[in-house]
Design goal:
The chain is α+β, with helices and mostly antiparallel strands and about 240 residues long. It is about 30% helix and about 45% strand. The protein contains six helices and eleven strands. The strands form two sheets. Strands 1, 7, 8, 9, 10 and 11 form a six-stranded antiparallel beta sheet that branches. A five-stranded antiparallel beta sheet has the order 2-3-4-5-6. Strand 8 and strand 9 form a beta hairpin. About 25% of the residues are buried. Keywords: Signal.
């Protein structure tokens, strides 16, 4: 056999081997290497684009809570035009961003409830309740709660609440008895989670809670963090606030 024939066979084998490696290369890469990272905007694209009336009805029906059931009944009773406006407000970031408050009062038993209109359809409701739970070794067992709600056409859609309970002497908190933070949310455009822990600081029972609103629909835009605070017991007063972080 001539040396030329031998070289041609070797060359053909090399080409075939290279082709085989090219076919196997993607498989080997997929099996042995991690997938490339997703683009930065991929998470945003995974959000539902816009909340609709139908989508909101489905959301409420899937939430088996008393609040969702009440909201579903009230929402269904609205005219179609108001239903459309309602879901528009839910996914309007500026509305939830405007939900803020700053209040002060005495720790005498009683309370207050104030509704501040954002516009003719939306109101922000501030509520503080002070309760005397009797006496323990001469100290007054006091509970103070502060709730802030967003209402659309009179229907509550979010409520953030904090509370503290303490023993007080001479107008100052001397012992912490408890406290907590809760959120009630039937706004399908965002998830709201967070909380806080009560503390006793310089004669005051305090609680500072952080609430993180994470969009479920891209139409809401960026998420919002809020800080809700309550101090009670200093010189017989309480102070309450809710602000954007």
């Amino acid at each position: 056999m001539s040396s030329g024939s031998t070289m041609r066979r070797i060359g053909s084998a090399a080409v075939a081997g290279a082709a085989a490696l090219a076919v196997l290369a993607p498989t080997a890469s997929a099996a042995g290497r991690p997938a490339p990272p997703a683009p930065v905007g991929a998470v945003q694209h995974s959000l539902m684009s816009k909340l609709t009336v139908t989508g909101y009805l489905q959301y409420l029906a899937s939430r088996h809570t008393p609040e969702a059931k009440r909201t579903l009944t009230a929402f269904r009773a609205l005219p179609k035009a108001k239903q459309q406006k309602f879901v528009g407000y839910l996914q309007n970031r500026k509305v939830y961003q405007a939900l803020t408050a700053s209040l002060k009062g005495t720790t005498r038993p009683g309370g207050l409830r104030r509704a501040t209109p954002y516009n003719p359809d939306v109101s922000f409701v501030k509520e503080v309740r002070v309760e005397a739970k009797g006496k323990v070794a001469g100290a007054v067992n006091t509970r103070v709660g502060f709730a802030m709600s967003e209402e659309i056409f009179g229907i509550p859609v979010t409520t953030e609440k904090v509370w503290v309970q303490y023993l007080a002497k001479g107008g100052r908190a001397t012992q912490l008895k408890g406290g907590g933070a809760t959120v009630t949310n039937v706004n399908a455009a965002v998830d709201i989670k967070g909380g806080g822990t009560p503390r006793l600081v310089r004669g005051a029972a305090t609680l500072s809670a952080t609430w993180k609103a994470t969009p479920r629909h891209a139409s809401f835009g960026k998420g919002i963090d809020k800080l809700q605070a309550l101090d009670a017991g200093v010189q017989g007063y309480w102070r309450a606030s809710l602000h954007n972080a």
